[in-house]
């Protein structure tokens, strides 16, 4: 820790962040830039921000000595998560006082102390900001600075511009239906507590003002999407009496909308992605059936080869679709130590020849064993290598490297392709998500590969992350516990 905070550097860095916001940037790029500006000013070895949702947290931004934690999940019942979400909003924490797996990972990276502050909106925690240091020290001005920066981040969440990365925002789902009573001019006369929970507007903000929601005709129902992405189902009816008042009820149906959307998307993606290989297989099969005698041996072999290739693609696609729908994992067997280097070399053998020729393996001979499910590694590497090949020029190299970092061992798949935008590094793991859609899509695929990779790796107590490659392209990194 420095003798004093470098406030001029902090202000200059913060000015850059504000300029980014004024220029239209939002979300992860702005958050990451804020951490990069704060780290040297605080004299920290690394910075990290954990976003929290109903099911736990995830490191969505990290710099310096903490960049290895990017993408790491924190379960809601993890002792470290419980510790971070309790106690004073801002404080100093010794890594040795943590009781979860995170403590060993931090210590393995030479980090012994953190100054942490929760980012809160209306008493609801959206995340926590961490400044990490290699040695012990007494708390000082850095606590005030970290608290201020966490408040700035909370303000970014309140704007709902690209944040949160996961979930539906800082307002929790309503415990009961929201209820409002409006007059004939649709001015709010009554606003119950559940309405405030659903909409985020207090009674003071809503009363005697126009209803902040569309008003359906009496007796009808309307589904309405809020600016933060949530969906409400709104109904209205006339109140008896001379006042011409109308009662309006509304509830959060975001989960139902998401399930309906996922079901429709699954059917659409399945039909679209299955159509191409089936059409090709049928075409070549019909050609062999109808023109066998007129084809020479080379043409017949070529047709059979294409049918075999497309059948393999079809089988793999069906497996991915079924795995995605069934939410299956790597198995019920407990994780066990395995030779990561040997497993990677064996997995490469199963890749298509055209892809295998592009791979450059750099695996150290003394790579420690990993703890996990060895058979599932073939699926993980296949998806990452296939993804790298799809989004990079034909014939360009795809590098597979491995290494150890404290209590973690992992590998990277690096390509020299089109790269990935910073705001897409998390969305890329969503099921069915594609960087392009409709007629603009230049790359085939169902949008399931990275989704399956993340699920498989996290079920082995590891995590996976994406980031742009410095010289162009994308780096996918998988980290697993050491065996």
From TrEMBL:
CDD domains: HisKA. Residues 269-483 form the Histidine kinase domain. It is found in: Cell membrane. Pfam families: HATPase_c (PF02518), HisKA (PF00512), PAS (PF00989). Residues 171-209 form the PAS domain. One of its GO terms (molecular function) is phosphorelay sensor kinase activity. It catalyses: ATP + protein L-histidine = ADP + protein N-phospho-L-histidine. Its main location: membrane. Its EC number is 2.7.13.3. Keywords: Kinase, Phosphoprotein, Transferase, Two-component regulatory system. InterPro entries: HATPase_C_sf, HATPase_dom, His_kinase_dom, HisK_dim/P_dom, HisK_dim/P_sf, PAS, PAS-like_dom_sf, PAS_fold. It is an enzyme of class 2 (transferase). This is histidine kinase. It comes from Micromonospora profundi. The lineage of its organism: Bacteria, Bacillati, Actinomycetota, Actinomycetes, Micromonosporales.
């Amino acid at each position: 820790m420095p003798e004093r905070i470098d406030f001029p550097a902090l202000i200059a860095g913060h000015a850059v962040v504000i300029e980014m916001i004024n220029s239209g940037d939002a979300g992860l790029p702005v958050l990451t830039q804020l951490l990069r500006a704060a780290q040297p000013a605080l004299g920290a070895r690394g910075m990290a921000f954990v976003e929290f949702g109903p099911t736990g947290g995830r490191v969505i931004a990290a710099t310096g000595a903490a960049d290895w934690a990017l993408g790491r999940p924190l379960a809601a019942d993890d002792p470290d998560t419980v510790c971070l979400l309790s106690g004073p909003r801002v404080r100093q924490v010794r890594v040795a006082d943590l009781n979860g797996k995170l403590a060993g990972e931090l210590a393995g990276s030479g980090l012994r102390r953190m100054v942490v502050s929760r980012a809160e909106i209306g008493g609801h925690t959206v995340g926590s900001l961490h400044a990490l240091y290699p040695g012990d020290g007494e708390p000082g001005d850095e606590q005030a600075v970290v608290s201020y920066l966490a408040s700035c981040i909370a303000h970014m969440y309140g704007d709902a511009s690209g944040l949160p990365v996961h979930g539906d925002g800082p307002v929790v789902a309503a415990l009961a239906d929201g209820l409002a009573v409006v007059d004939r001019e649709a001015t709010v006369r009554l606003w119950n507590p559940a309405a405030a929970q659903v909409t985020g507007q207090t009674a003071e903000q809503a009363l005697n003002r126009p209803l902040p929601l569309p008003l359906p005709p009496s007796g009808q129902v309307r589904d309405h999407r809020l600016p933060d992405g949530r969906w409400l189902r709104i109904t209205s009816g006339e109140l008896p009496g001379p006042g011409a008042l109308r009662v309006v009820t509304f509830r959060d149906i975001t989960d139902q909308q998401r399930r309906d959307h996922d079901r429709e998307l699954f059917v659409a993606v399945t039909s679209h992605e299955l159509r191409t290989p089936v059409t090709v297989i049928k075409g070549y099969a019909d050609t062999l059936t109808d023109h066998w005698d007129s084809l020479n041996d080379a043409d017949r072999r070529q047709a059979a080869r294409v049918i075999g290739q497309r059948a393999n693609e079809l089988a793999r696609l069906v497996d991915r679709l079924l795995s995605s729908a069934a939410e299956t994992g790597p198995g019920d067997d407990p994780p066990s130590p395995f030779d990561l280097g040997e497993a990677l070399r064996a997995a490469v053998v199963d890749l298509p020849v055209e892809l295998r020729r592009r791979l450059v393996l750099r695996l150290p001979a003394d790579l420690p064993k990993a703890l996990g499910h060895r058979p599932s590694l073939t699926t993980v590497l296949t998806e990452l290598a296939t993804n790298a090949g799809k989004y990079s020029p034909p014939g360009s190299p795809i590098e597979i490297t491995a290494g150890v970092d404290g209590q973690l061992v992992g590998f990277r798949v690096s390509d020299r392709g089109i790269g990935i935008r910073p705001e897409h590094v998390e969305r890329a793991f969503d099921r069915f998500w594609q960087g392009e859609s409709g007629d603009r899509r230049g790359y085939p695929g169902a949008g399931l590969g990275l989704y399956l990779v993340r699920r498989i790796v996290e079920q082995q107590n590891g995590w996976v992350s994406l980031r742009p490659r410095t010289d162009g392209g994308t780096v996918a990194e998988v980290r697993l516990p050491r065996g």
